[in-house]
Amino acid sequence: MNRLKAAITAVGAYVPEYILTNQMLETMVDTNDEWITSRTGIKQRHILKEEGKGTSYLAIKAAEDLLQKSGANPQEIDMVIVATATPDLPVAATAAYVASKIGAINAFSYDLQAACSSFLYGMSTASSYIEAGRYKKILLIGADKMSSIIDYTDRTTCIIFGDGAGAVLFEPNEEGLGLQDEYLRSDGIGRDFLKIDAGGSILPASEETVKNKQHYVYQDGKTVFKFAVSNMADVAERIMVRNNLTKDDIQWLVPHQANKRIIDATANRVNLDSSRVMVNIEKYGNTTSATLPLLLNDYEKQLKKGDNLIFAAFGGGFTWGSIYLKWAYNA
Known about the structure:
Elements: E1 5-14, E2 19-21, H1 22-26, H2 33-40, E3 44-46, H3 55-70, E4 79-83, H4 94-101, E5 108-112, H5 118-131, E6 138-145, H6 155-158, E7 163-173, E8 178-186, E9 194-195, H7 207-211, E10 218-219, H8 221-242, E11 252-255, H9 260-269, H10 281-284, H11 291-299, E12 308-315, E13 319-326
Parallel strand pairs: 4-5, 4-6, 11-12
Antiparallel strand pairs: 1-7, 2-3, 6-7, 8-13, 9-10, 12-13
Helix pairs in contact: 3-4, 8-9
């Protein structure tokens, strides 16, 4: 008998209706469609415009989509994890609110924050709980309202990010399918290069921090790009070598959607043809915690039971890693 593993058994997603195109950004900052497309691969991004709606709204919609598609009973869910860099509120867990709103009344819930690696780290966390035999149904949601922390006069960041959410359900599997291995890393040096200066315990909000726009994302693009290219590619290769996998063994690379050039570099390192690389960055931009589950949702119908998937992500902190997972069902 195979050792108990944690498999993804359902997916769901949500993106807001409002679309911010490259052409629209041309009227806001000094940029153009050709420049954005050639450097990032992004053509548009979805933005949550409705007042009073935050990350929880996106997460609830994605969870409801998963529940509707799969027929899962929310009352049977043991745990809800919301991977996010943009929680509704600084103290009250977004996940607790999401769980209550979707009817997961028997679940305990919490948020997980590792910037763009949040969902990847969440996969590790959810699968560990399942493999331990303590819980049977864990809903993992990656959701971010990045528009809430972006300065739309800063062309280095406003062209990159979008809003969205994706959800997956983890359940026990005795066929050897599900999460097989992980290689997760972090390095505190990244704190200087990708951050929000104010609003935390070091620099609480004040009239001055608001005036100085210190509550928006700051990114040293060249440094982050350099670290992301080398580290995402490195961990994807490492996890394959460690599991004796060649390019012929891999059906899909599932890379974080930060920049098309980073995606291409990762695919090239593991020698995978572009036809086996999941990409939707042109539609959504970088949705931070939501990129990986949005990919799974978009490609769900192409996935087959037993497919080998290599996930890779890189985020602020710095945080990064790769996960090897065997897909558990035919859509």
